[in-house]
Amino acid sequence: MADFVDPIKTERLVLRPFTAADEADLLEFESLPEVARYLFNEPFDEEDNARALAKRRKQTSLAREGDTLVHAVEYDGKVIGWVQLVWVSVTHRQGEFGYVFHPGYGGKGFATEAAVEMLRIGFERLGLHRIYGRCDVRNEASARVMERIGMRREAHFVEAEIFKGEWGGELHYAMLDREWRASKWAS
Ligand SMILES: CC(C)(COP(=O)(O)OP(=O)(O)OC[C@H]1O[C@@H](n2cnc3c(N)ncnc32)[C@H](O)[C@@H]1OP(=O)(O)O)[C@@H](O)C(=O)NCCC(=O)NCCS
């Protein structure tokens, strides 16, 4: 499968590969404790941020199993978040998506609007059969994003891992290609 370097324009957003110029915008939200609260990483310092940006700048194609596509999400010329799609299995046509946004731009539907584009790529360009997303059981905003998209809650793993020093639970949501085609989001 090809590179995904061409910008994607939605109603209010532009999704496109990260560039070196995005460093300050990225640090502005990746450094916040509230953003890292339910992520596996801790809040970024400048060094963490530079390292993550260098890695994400290269994540522009889905060529083989295990590849991750990352898009910066721009609103009004500023990067306010990012979304990703992981090609989990070629044989089983499975993918996983994710999203991280600046809380200063929350509550406007931007994460939902951008995350849907990862599903579109997965289903309509990569031919995936099923795409799933996972979140901490306490991450209600993230669960609501997946519910708003119309994904099914498939599982609640209770205290299945030690997350940041305490027992953590995880919700799994998923959508199948036929559910995508029947949804309001399909092209
Ligand atoms: C998870 C996260 C992206 C959710 O952000 P969010 O702002 O709640 O999500 P959206 O941008 O899609 O906005 C949805 C909200 O805007 C409201 N909204 C306003 N205008 C809207 C519009 N035009 N379209 C859709 N929703 C709209 C919705 O009602 C919804 O509010 P509600 O959740 O109170 O019902 C954000 O909390 C985040 O980045 N957290 C830190 C990182 C993280 O945990 N990532 C997920 C890891 S699993």
UniProtKB/TrEMBL annotation:
Keyword terms, alphabetized: Transferase
- Report the GO molecular function annotations: acyltransferase activity, transferring groups other than amino-acyl groups
Per its UniProt record, what PROSITE patterns does this chain match?
Answer: GNAT (PS51186)
Pfam families the record matches:
Acetyltransf_3 (PF13302)
Stored Gene3D superfamilies? 3.40.630.30
CDD domains recorded for this chain?
NAT_SF
InterPro entries, A to Z: Acyl_CoA_acyltransferase, GNAT_dom, N-acetyltransferase
Where does the N-acetyltransferase domain start and stop, copy by copy?
A: 13-178
Q: Which domain of life is it from?
A: Bacteria
Name recorded for this polypeptide? N-acetyltransferase
Q: Which organism encodes this protein?
A: Amycolatopsis suaedae
